[in-house]
Design a protein that fits this description.
heterodimer, A: 408 residues, 12 strands, B: 240 residues, alpha/beta, Rossmann fold, six-stranded mixed β-sheet, four-stranded antiparallel β-sheet, 10 strands
Chain lengths: 408, 240
C-alpha cells in the first residue's frame, strides 16, 4: 500500500481527537524543549566557566619549567626563555603572551602578616592576557614608570589592613641560594575579581623588580598566552611544539582538569536527562496509541476484513506515532529555541559563584547549536518508533472476528 | 460449472469457559456464481458464523470451505487477507466506513491494497459511485452522508474490486424501510446486470422475498434450502 496514503490516514486518525493529540504533542514537545534548553544552559555554563577561567588570569595555555607546576619551586625556571619568547612572537597561532615569575612570599603590614603568592608581571603584556587590570577597584594598575608598587587583592588588603599608598614588607627566598630577601612596596592598586582565591592570595609587582628581589637575573617561571583561535587549545600542536628543553607546555584542558571533568560530567548528565525524558515522553506516546487503538478495535476489524494485512495495520500505528513525534518535534524545537533566545537576552546571573575551581564572571547565556535541533529530534523519533512497535504489534494481532464480534 | 462457495461438513464450536457451543453443525452448501441468496433464521442459528467461516474471518474447526475453488482452511493469515481483498466484498449492518476517509477514499482503499494505479483507481471509483447513484458526493466524509448514502458507499466499496462474492450481514437493518428497499433494488440490479453473487444474512422479509434462493438456518444446521424462481432453478440445473 502506498506510504503516502498511510501517512495521510495516520495524520487524519490523529486529528480525530485533536485535543488529545495536541496535548500529547505538547507534552512531548515540552520534554524536547526542556532538553534543548538544559543542553543550551550546560554548553553556556561550560563556555562561561572556561572563558572565565582562561580570561581572568590563566590564559589559553602556559609554559613552565618541568616540575614547577607541582612544586612551585622557584629554582625550576623556564629554560632558554628568551628563545621561546622570540618563537612565540613569530608564531601565527599565538595572539598574545606574557612572561611571569612566581614565588611564595610572606607579606607584613603594620597590622598583620599573611602568606601570598607573589607574581612578577610584564605590565603591558599582562593586560592582553589577564583581567587584573579590569578588576582594579581602588588605585590603579602597575605602571612601567612606577617603582616598588604592588597590586593586591581586596581580601588580602582587608587581612593586612592596608589601603592605597600604604606599605607592605615582602619577604621571599631567593633563586638558587634560598637566602631570604625583603623589599618594601607601596600599595598602588587593589583588585576585586569575585574569585576569593585570587582576592585573598595573589599579589603582583613588576617582573623586573621581582627578578631583582629574587636575584633571578632575567629568568621566569611561566609564560601565559592566548591563541587567535580558542579551539587551538584543544589540539596537540602547542604541547608538541613547546614541550622541549625540559619545559612543559600545556593548554587549558590540561591546566584545568577539574573544569574539563565538570564539562564532561555535565555532558553525561545531559545524556542521562535525555534518556529519562525520552523514556517518559515515549511512554506518553505509547499510552496515547493504546487509547487510540482501544477506541478503534472494531474499525481495525473492518480494515482486516477488507484485506489489510497485519503488517500494514501495524505500520499504520507506527506512522500515527511518527506523526505525533513530528508534531512534537516542531512544537518542541520552537519552544526550545524561544526559551534559549529569551533567557539568552540577559542570561542567568551566577557571577561570583565558584564552580569546579573557577568563578563565573559573567551571566550564563544558553547556547543554541544545530545538533540540538537534529540529534535530539532524531533520537526522539527513534525512541517513538521503537516504543510504537508494541502497540503496533498488538493492533496487528487483532483478529477480525473478535474485533467485530457483534457484526459479520 | 464451478461453485463460488462450497462447504462440506462445515462445523464450528465456540468454547466459553467450560461451555461448548456448537454454532455450526456439519453444513453442506453449494453456491453458484450469480446467485442472490438470503440466509435467514433466528438469532443464534449460525447465519453469521457461516459467513465468518466462508470468508476466513474465523477459523474452521472441522470440514471444508472452498471459496472460488480454494480451501481457505489451508491459508495463512496473510494469504487470507489477500484472498479477502481480491475475492470477497463485505457489506456490514452499520455501514462501517472509515470515518477519516472520504467516500471516494473509502472506495479506493481496497484498490490501494491491490496496488492499482491512481488513474485506474479514480476511474473505477467514479464509475462505481455513479452506479450507486452518488455522483458528486465523492469528497464527502461519512459523517456528511445520510445512513442510506453511507450504505451505498459501502456497497460501492464492496463491488469496486469485482469480487467473486459479496457477503452482506443485515445490510438494511439500520435503514428505514424506503431506503432499505431502494438499496435492495440497487443490489438486485447489480446482481442481474453484473452477475455479482450476493449472500445475505438477514431477518428482513424484503430481502428474503427478493432472493432467488432462501436458506433457513436452525440450531447451526441448514433447515431448508428453497429455490424460489426459475432463474435459480436454471442456475442449479446448470450445475448439475
Amino acid at each position: 500500500m502506498k506510504i503516502v496514503f498511510l501517512l495521510k490516514l495516520a495524520w487524519r486518525n490523529n486529528l480525530r481527537n485533536k485535543r488529545r493529540t495536541f496535548l500529547v504533542s505538547l507534552m512531548v514537545g515540552l520534554g524536547l524543549a526542556a532538553l534543548i534548553f538544559v543542553d543550551g544552559m550546560s554548553i553556556g555554563m561550560a563556555d562561561n566557566i572556561v572563558r572565565s577561567a582562561t580570561s581572568t588570569f590563566l590564559g589559553h595555555a602556559q609554559i613552565h619549567g618541568e616540575g614547577f607546576r607541582n612544586s612551585n619551586d622557584i629554582d625550576l625556571v623556564i629554560n632558554e626563555n628568551i628563545g621561546i619568547l622570540k618563537q612565540l612572537a613569530g608564531d601565527d597561532k599565538a595572539e598574545s603572551f606574557t612572561p611571569r615569575a612566581i614565588s611564595f612570599s610572606m607579606f607584613a603590614s603594620a597590622s598583620n602578616s599573611d602568606s601570598v603568592m607573589l607574581y612578577g608581571i610584564d605590565v603591558e603584556r599582562e593586560k592582553n592576557i589577564s583581567k587584573i587590570n579590569d578588576f582594579i577597584n581602588k588605585g590603579e594598575f602597575l605602571k612601567e614608570s612606577g617603582q616598588n608598587e604592588i597590586l593586591i587583592g581586596s581580601e588580602l588588603a582587608e587581612n593586612l589592613e592596608v589601603g592605597i599608598g600604604e606599605h607592605i614588607i615582602v619577604t621571599v627566598a631567593q633563586y638558587k641560594t634560598g637566602e631570604l630577601a625583603q623589599g618594601m612596596f607601596r600599595v598602588g592598586g587593589i583588585f576585586h575579581s569575585n574569585s576569593r582565591q585570587m582576592d585573598k592570595n595573589l599579589a603582583f609587582i613588576k617582573l623586573t623588580e621581582f627578578q631583582k628581589l629574587l636575584a633571578m637575573n632575567g629568568k621566569i617561571h611561566e609564560i601565559a598566552l592566548k591563541f587567535k583561535d580558542f579551539k587551538e587549545a584543544e589540539n596537540d600542536f602547542f604541547s608538541s611544539k613547546y614541550s622541549n628543553k625540559s619545559n612543559e607546555a600545556l593548554s587549558w584542558p590540561a591546566l584545568l582538569p577539574e573544569v574539563m571533568a565538570a564539562s564532561k560530567m555535565s555532558a553525561v548528565g545531559i545524556l542521562i536527562t535525555a534518556i529519562i525524558l525520552f523514556m517518559i515522553v515515549s511512554l506518553g506516546i505509547m499510552n496515547t496509541l493504546f487509547m487510540a487503538i482501544f477506541e478503534r478495535v472494531f474499525e481495525f476489524g473492518i480494515l482486516r476484513s477488507l484485506g489489510t494485512r497485519p503488517f500494514q495495520l501495524g505500520l499504520m500505528i507506527v506512522l500515527e506515532a511518527v506523526m505525533i513525534a513530528l508534531t512534537s518535534i516542531v512544537l518542541g524545537s520552537i519552544i526550545g529555541f524561544a526559551a534559549v533566545y529569551i533567557v539568552g537576552i540577559n542570561g542567568l546571573d551566577y557571577s561570583g559563584i565558584e564552580f569546579a575551581g573557577a568563578t563565573f564572571l559573567e551571566p550564563i547565556i544558553p547556547v543554541s547549536r544545530i545538533f540540538q535541533y537534529i540529534v535530539y529530534p532524531l533520537v526522539l523519533m527513534i525512541f517513538t518508533v521503537l516504543i510504537s512497535i508494541y502497540p503496533a504489534f498488538y493492533a496487528s494481532k487483532i483478529t477480525p472476528v473478535k474485533a467485530m464480534r457483534k457484526s459479520l | 460449472m464451478d461453485y463460488v462457495i462450497e462447504t462440506e461438513s462445515l462445523s464450528k464450536i465456540y468454547i466459553s469457559g467450560e461451555i461448548e457451543v456448537n454454532a455450526l453443525k456439519s453444513v453442506d452448501l453449494k453456491i453458484k456464481k450469480g446467485e442472490f441468496i438470503a440466509i435467514a433464521g433466528p438469532s443464534g442459528s449460525g447465519k453469521t458464523t457461516f459467513l465468518n467461516l466462508i470468508s476466513g474471518l474465523d477459523s474452521i474447526n472441522s470440514g471444508i470451505a472452498r471459496l472460488a475453488g480454494k480451501d481457505i482452511s489451508l491459508m495463512t493469515k496473510k494469504e487470507l487477507s489477500d484472498f479477502r481483498r481480491d475475492h470477497i466484498g463485505f457489506i456490514f449492518q452499520a455501514y462501517n466506513l472509515i470515518p477519516v476517509l472520504t467516500a471516494a477514499e473509502n472506495i479506493e482503499y481496497i484498490m490501494l491494497l491491490q496496488n492499482i494505479s491512481p488513474a485506474r483507481r479514480r476511474e473505477r471509483t467514479l464509475k462505481v459511485l455513479q452506479d450507486v447513484d452518488l455522483s458528486g458526493k465523492e469528497n464527502r466524509f461519512p459523517s456528511q452522508l445520510s445512513g442510506g448514502q453511507q450504505q451505498r458507499v459501502a456497497i460501492a466499496r464492496a463491488i469496486v474490486s469485482n469480487p467473486d462474492i459479496i457477503l452482506a450481514d443485515e445490510p438494511t437493518a439500520n435503514l428505514d424501510s424506503e431506503t432499505g428497499s431502494s438499496l435492495l433494488d440497487l443490489m438486485h440490479t447489480l446482481n442481474r446486470k453484473r452477475g455479482i453473487t450476493f449472500v445475505f444474512a438477514t431477518h428482513d422479509p424484503k430481502i428474503m422475498d427478493k432472493s432467488d434462493r432462501l436458506i433457513i438456518f436452525k440450531d447451526g444446521k441448514v433447515d431448508s434450502d428453497i429455490i424460489k424462481n426459475d432463474r435459480a432453478q436454471n442456475l442449479k440445473n446448470e450445475s448439475n
